[in-house]
Design goal:
Blueprint (H helix, E strand, L loop, with lengths): L12 H4 L6 H14 L5 H15 L3 H13 L2 H14 L1 H18 L6 H30 L4 H9 L1 H20 L1 H23 L15 H5 L16 H5 L2 H9 L1 H12 L1 H7 L4 H26 L4 H18 L6 H30 L4 H18 L1 H11 L3 H7 L1 H11 L10
Helix pairs in contact: 2-7, 2-8, 2-9, 2-10, 3-9, 4-7, 4-19, 5-6, 5-7, 5-19, 6-7, 6-10, 7-8, 7-19, 8-16, 8-18, 9-10, 9-16, 13-19, 13-22, 14-19, 14-20, 15-16, 16-18, 17-18, 17-22, 20-21
Length: 428
């Protein structure tokens, strides 16, 4: 449990001199964490797939299956990190995750057997894609309530920016240094860039250093006695949250974005090629998707502080359906551009909302454990996504059957979100 009352864990002498809300410092550290989760994300791992196949002689099916297995098992990272987050606090957990993620990334350079590759994928997906992302965003959610959407949107911008910046950099590193040395370079970069701010700047909660969510030192000192009382918010235990209908409906509502989004990203080049789009243009569409994701993340952050969160999640599902349906019309580059716009809108709206909606619904006190459980559905669906798309492609020799088969899923997820209002305690 994270103590939300003013029982200081640090002597915040230097923090007292900061003229603005220290929560924005936390946002900067979390942004770095989200950006550096890139080596555990599909958009970076995909750059390594062909070099690994060429070097080891393993089949594409073997590497893909091992990656899916490692991704599915990555839910373990969410559960462990979530529980540790509640018990030990953000600084300890973020530091530990960063240290272990860097180590797992370095060890990827040593794989010589498919079992080693599975353990490597499991490690970087559990620690990077799952634990590091979850701890970074949960830390921000602890520090903000009224401005949570805005703060989360700023943090979430790191994801599409990482998707734009890292793939070409990693490609150049592989060309010049080889894929094994590139994993070592990425691991060292994680340690050098993320560990110092995690250790030096992160604090457990605003209350632990005499502050309050959304407020700087001067704001707190200016409060009267009644205003200085603890922030009033509903805080649910994980067991209480799991007994609500909204908890499970929101988890289900997030599966389409994870499953279909990962599948279509993993098979992006093949999907575009099947529609007559060459590799160069297809690669540019990925960059366009990430750029639109920046815009939609900012938009989602603004809207999340203004309107019911579930409506934004519904809008994201509509954009995802539009993205899927539009693939049938792709015959030229401008058609692919429209597809990239729809896809980027869906990614930003769904991803940002899924980060914010759980603390908005269930409070901050047990957020780590709650997010750990909630993340399981997203992680498992993300790992499962590429397999059926690939299998259905093998059956039909195109992606039409896969897209038609999965098109009802975002529609069902939209309905699920629509019927998931904020829960209320029975005593209310």
């Amino acid at each position: 449990m994270i103590p939300l009352k003013n029982n200081s864990e640090d002597k915040p002498s230097w923090i007292n001199s900061i003229p603005f809300n220290y929560g924005w410092v936390i946002v900067v550290v979390a942004w770095i964490g989200m950006f550096m989760s890139g080596p555990g994300q599909t958009f970076v791992v995909a750059i390594f797939v062909d070099p690994i196949i060429e070097d080891t002689g393993w089949s594409r099916t073997t590497v893909s299956a091992v990656y899916s297995a490692g991704s599915i098992c990555a839910f373990v990272g969410a559960v462990i990190a979530g529980r540790a987050f509640d018990k030990l606090g953000a600084r300890i957990v973020l530091t530990a995750v960063a240290a272990l993620f860097g180590l797992a990334t370095v060890l990827m350079s040593q794989v010589t057997h498919p079992v080693h590759l599975f353990l490597g994928f499991w490690g970087i997906r559990s620690l990077g894609q799952t634990a590091l992302s979850m701890v970074s965003t949960s830390t921000v959610n602890i520090w903000f309530i009224r401005l949570r959407g805005k703060a989360t949107a700023i943090t979430s911008l790191a994801a599409p920016i990482s998707e734009i910046a890292l793939p070409p950099l990693v490609y150049l590193l592989i060309v010049n240094n080889g894929w094994r040395s590139t994993w070592v370079i990425l691991g060292i970069a994680i340690w050098v860039i993320l560990l110092p701010p995690a250790i030096l700047l992160v604090r457990r909660t605003p209350e632990s250093i005499g502050l309050k969510p959304d407020m700087g030192r001067k704001d707190v000192l200016g409060l009267n006695d009644s205003q200085a009382a603890d922030v009033q918010e509903e805080n649910w235990t994980s067991k209480e949250a799991m007994k609500t209908k909204s908890f499970w409906l929101i988890i289900f509502a997030g599966t389409a974005g994870s499953l279909i989004g990962t599948a279509m990203t993993f098979h992006h080049m093949s999907i575009m090629n099947s529609r007559g789009i060459e590799d160069t243009q297809a690669t540019l569409i990925l960059s366009l998707t990430a750029a639109v994701g920046v815009f939609s993340t900012i938009l989602a952050g603004y809207l999340l502080d203004k309107i019911p969160n579930r409506f934004i999640l519904v809008a994201g599902q509509v954009a995802l359906m539009a993205s899927m349906g539009w693939t049938f019309f792709i015959q030229d580059t401008w058609h692919a551009i429209v597809y990239g716009i729809f896809t980027g809108m869906a990614q930003g709206l769904i991803y940002t909302t899924m980060i914010v909606i759980f603390p908005n619904y269930f409070g901050r006190k047990h957020l780590g454990t709650i997010m750990g459980v909630a993340t399981i559905g997203m992680v498992v669906s993300s790992g499962l996504g590429p397999l059926p798309f690939g299998a259905l492609y093998e059956i039909s020799n195109n992606y039409d059957l896969a897209i038609i088969s999965f098109l009802p899923l975002p529609a069902l997820c939209a309905l699920s979100a629509l019927f998931a209002p904020p829960p209320k305690h029975k005593s209310d």
